[in-house]
Amino acid sequence: MKAVTINISLNRELAEFARADAQAAAFDNMSEYMRELIRRRREARITEDVAMLEKAIAGAPVGDPSEAEMRKIYAAIKKGRKK
Q1: How far apart are CA 56 and CA 50, in angstroms?
Q2: How far apart are CA 48 and CA 44, in angstroms?
Q3: Count of structural domains, the chain
Q4: What is the pLDDT of residue 1?
Q5: Which of 12, 21, 23, 34 is the least buried, fewest Cβ under 10 Å from its Cβ?
Q6: Does residue 18 contact residue 33 with C-beta atoms inside 8 Å?
Q7: What is the extent of the structural domain holding 70?
Q8: What residue spans of 1-66 are helical by DSSP H?
Q9: Is residue 6 part of a domain?
Q10: Is 76 among the domain residues?
């Protein structure tokens, strides 16, 4: 995959922290450091999304609605359209 260059601006405090943290974590350069931070953020977001989906699935009804439930659903839809 071809690399894309992205430039960022940091204030002095953040830049010094990033340099020190990258060096302490034995990254060869700032690009490696930034890639790792982005990967970790992406993994965290995926984990959050999976947890949200699992929660939604856990609360979902099991199986198909019964005929009586379908009649109620259709009646509610029909009533809502008349408004």
Answers
A1: 10
A2: 6
A3: 1
A4: 82
A5: 12
A6: yes
A7: 12-82
A8: 12-24, 30-58
A9: no
A10: yes
pTM of the predicted model over 0.70: no
The two structure tokens encoding residue 69: 């439930």
Non-local (6+) Cβ contacts of 21 within 8 A are 33
Chain centroid to Cα 35, Å, comes to 17
Q: Look at residue 39 in the predicted model and tell me its pLDDT.
A: 98
Residue 3 within a domain: no
Q: Phi, psi at residue 25, to the nearest 5°?
A: -90, 5
- Ordered per-residue pLDDT tens for the chain, 83 residues: 898 999 999 999 999 999 999 999 999 999 999 999 999 999 999 999 999 999 999 988 888 989 999 999 999 999 888 76
Helix (H, G, I), strand (E, B) or coil at 53: helix
> Interior CA angle at 66 toward 77 and 56, to 5°?
75
| 70/62 Cα distance (integer angstroms) | 14
Report which of 69, 42, 79 is spatially closest to residue 34, judged by C-alpha positions. Answer: 42
Length of the chain: 83
